[in-house]
Design brief:
Length: 675
């Protein structure tokens, strides 16, 4: 999307930024506290240029120019006192929060009084294409993340002079300021900080994101004193877990040795593990391990892992072991993100949380925490940081932890569920596309009730055939009764939760029946207003053997599955809004399979209807072999009409559905692809 340069502020969602004003970017001098890439941005340093060149160039600049970092961020003009975005949201500018190498940060308050931080970057700094691309990448990456220990991305917009990245406010500054005030921190406090940082990095790495600029100054405290990683300016996404990056970037004190190797070695996720080691050392000892006045000395020390544990600042043996492993020269020798928390050091005193008193002095009682209490606090800190402990064996407990924690994008990474609006349509891994419900499960419950067969209504080719021929008949004045059938609203999926990465796909129908399509293809369908539930086991694509049972006296093998169904039901009821109003159950209908693309999710129901939930929140349902079509608007208004009439009119009769005919063409192609 191309963004025009005009007031009011515009949302920044596309791949382009406006042209900046005609201010010439200035060249930067070399500073140890600024990311290396800062110089690459402004001095046309190309990724992959060799290290000697980089050093030479930087040294030269260091000597030549003594400009401060403020010079760049100073180009960012103070935003007007009220900014109105294109979406019609007014933000009132508040106090100046701080500045980094490129950005200045201001408070912004919305009409409800909620306060945010607006990271403000001067357009004068993003004149060339490469810099623009980098800023857009930062926005794209940050926008895609949602984790309790990552600064939440709220919005992004621009005016003529600045680009604004609206973020969750972290009013208690960063670990860097904390360390400046406190000089050194206690081991228990650092344990808690490390768990939060590791939780966030584990999440980033699971999404193939490398942060590449982890440092104390980029880890902020939120109002509740929880840590949040911010500043994704140097972050990158690997195309595959095996690929490597070659750009020399990072901040001198935190840079990993393999980054200094540049083109020869390349680097990957392990640079973030290295940075964890640097931060842990700095917090416990009071300064980074390779610190020196001259950046070149820092690099030399890094390359030979030349650091000491000073005797006047003693730290525990177990902390030294962990730091030494984290700072291994060979990246493959560093502990994996999953194994860091297994180190003995984490078994020490562990506080339950950090209070604001920690900002000014050592909190009382941090070293007097019992082993039992520490173990409990450690487990709970891991849970809060999205790290699941293998002890939680009970599936319902796992579901509870996953679904109730405030991180839907972690747990439901591909969710398109009606209540989850922000993470929709982001990415669909190939493994989830074209799911077909083949059963591997062979057990049957001891049923007191009937066992029967439910046949699959085969309608794929009839539907495609009818949709195609109705297109040509749409303007025919002599439509037949067959083409104008009676139009009842079909059975729709009104809520759903994709949990196929662990158990399966759960949904609620508009007759309030609840189903879970387990990953092995079996469905459990709990019938609304009834004591019955059905276990439906697929039979060679022809249908399902159906075993009925009682909810109040389920066979013992079914109890666990019913618990999962109940948990999903509870979750959907309290978290998701319905797609449409209720309908009476006419027949037993359930989900046969589903297909997800970046534009829609398609549900194939067992009675031969197809439901399409499009990205723009319009839903279509094709029933009666394509002769009838239903539309559900984003506001839940439902209408059902003969397909031929809406083809004739080019749209539904009582609603103007955006790109209606294109949507029908997509539907036809999607169903055809299933034949
Ligand atoms: N979410 C936030 N809440 C409060 N203040 C923030 C927030 N994000 C950033 N800041 C403040 O703004 C300053 C600059 O932000 P940030 O570090 O993201 O900018 P930068 O120019 O990219 O920095 P760097 O030079 O480290 O790359 C921070 O040092 C901090 O003082």
């Amino acid at each position: 999307m191309n963004l025009r340069s005009s007031q009011p502020l515009q949302p920044l969602e596309g791949d382009h930024l406006n042209r900046a004003s005609n201010v010439t970017p200035i060249k930067a001098s070399r500073r140890k506290d600024l990311p290396l890439d800062y110089y690459n941005y402004y001095n046309s340093q190309r990724p992959g240029d060799n290290h000697a060149q980089v050093q030479q160039q930087q040294h030269h600049q260091q000597e030549k120019v003594k400009k401060k970092k403020e010079k760049l961020s100073a180009l960012c003009k103070t935003p007007p006192s009220v900014v109105r975005t294109r979406k019609g949201i007014d933000y009132r500018r508040g106090m100046f929060l701080g500045e980094g190498g490129f950005a200045r940060c201001f408070q912004m308050k919305d009409a409800q009084g909620k306060i945010y931080a607006a990271k403000t970057v001067a357009k004068a700094l993003i004149k060339n294409e490469k810099t623009k691309t980098k800023l857009l990448l930062e926005i794209k990456i940050h926008k895609s993340l949602k984790h309790p220990n990552i600064v939440n991305f709220v919005d992004c917009f621009e005016d003529d002079v600045n680009v604004y990245i609206l973020l969750e406010i972290c009013p208690n500054q960063s670990l860097m300021e904390l360390l400046k005030t406190r000089k050194r921190l206690t081991e228990p406090e650092v344990r808690l900080f490390m768990v939060q940082i590791i939780g966030a990095i584990k999440y980033l790495h699971s999404r193939r994101v490398i942060h590449r600029d982890l440092k104390l100054g980029n880890i902020f405290f939120d109002p509740d004193m929880r840590l949040k990683i911010g500043d994704f300016g140097l972050a990158t996404v690997l195309t595959s877990a095996e690929s490597r990056r070659y750009t020399i970037c990072g901040t001198p004190n935190y840079i990993a040795p393999e980054v200094l190797g540049g083109k020869q070695t390349g680097h990957s996720f392990e640079v973030d593990i290295w940075a964890i080691g640097i931060m842990m050392y700095a917090l416990l000892v009071g300064k980074p391990p390779f610190q020196a006045k001259d950046v070149n000395v820092i690099y030399e020390r890094i390359k030979c892992i030349e650091f000491l544990f000073p005797s006047d600042k003693p730290i525990s043996e177990s902390a030294r072991v962990l730091i030494t492993d984290l700072l291994s020269l060979d990246p493959t020798k560093r502990p994996s993100i999953n194994s860091i928390l297994d180190y003995a050091w984490f078994k020490g005193p562990f506080p339950s949380k950090t209070n604001e008193e920690a900002l000014t002095g050592t909190p009382s009682g941090v070293n007097n925490i019992s082993n039992t209490q520490s173990a409990h606090n450690f487990a709970s800190a891991k849970n809060q940081a999205g790290i699941y402990t293998p002890k939680l064996k009970n599936p319902v407990e796992i579901l509870k932890t996953d679904l109730e924690s405030d991180q839907p994008r972690t747990v439901l990474p591909q969710s398109l569920s009606p209540g989850d609006t922000r993470a929709k349509y982001q990415e669909v891994p190939a493994s989830l596309i074209n799911q077909d419900g083949r059963s591997t499960r062979k057990f049957y419950f001891n049923s007191k009730f009937a066992k029967s067969i439910i046949k699959l209504e085969k309608s794929l080719s009839d539907t495609v055939h009818n949709l195609r021929s109705l297109r040509s008949r749409a303007h025919d004045s002599e439509l037949t009764a067959r083409e104008l059938p009676s139009c009842e609203h079909p059975t729709l999926i009104s809520k759903w939760v994709d949990y196929s990465n662990k158990y399966g796909f759960s949904y609620q129908l508009n007759n309030d029946d609840i189903g879970v399509l387990f990953n092995d293809g079996t469905t459990i369908l709990k019938l609304h207003n009834s004591d019955r539930f059905l276990e439906l086991i697929p039979q060679d694509g022809e249908g399902w053997s159906c075993i009925e049972n009682s909810v109040s006296h389920p066979p013992s093998q079914a109890r666990r599955l019913l618990e999962i169904v109940d948990f999903f039901a509870k979750y959907m009821n309290s978290n998701l809004s319905k797609v449409s109003e209720n309908e009476e159950r006419k027949d037993i209908v359930f989900l046969r399979r589903y297909t997800r693309t970046s534009d829609y999710i398609m549900f194939e129901m067992t009675n031969g209807t197809f439901q399409f939930n499009f990205k723009d929140h319009h839903k279509f349902c094709v029933s009666k072999n394509g002769l009838v079509m239903t539309h559900v608007s984003p506001e839940r208004a439902i209408q059902t009409h003969p397909t031929v009439l809406l083809l004739e009119q080019g749209n539904f009769l009582t609603a103007d559905v955006p790109n209606c005919l294109e949507k029908i063409a997509i539907i036809e192609a999607a169903i055809r692809a299933k034949i």
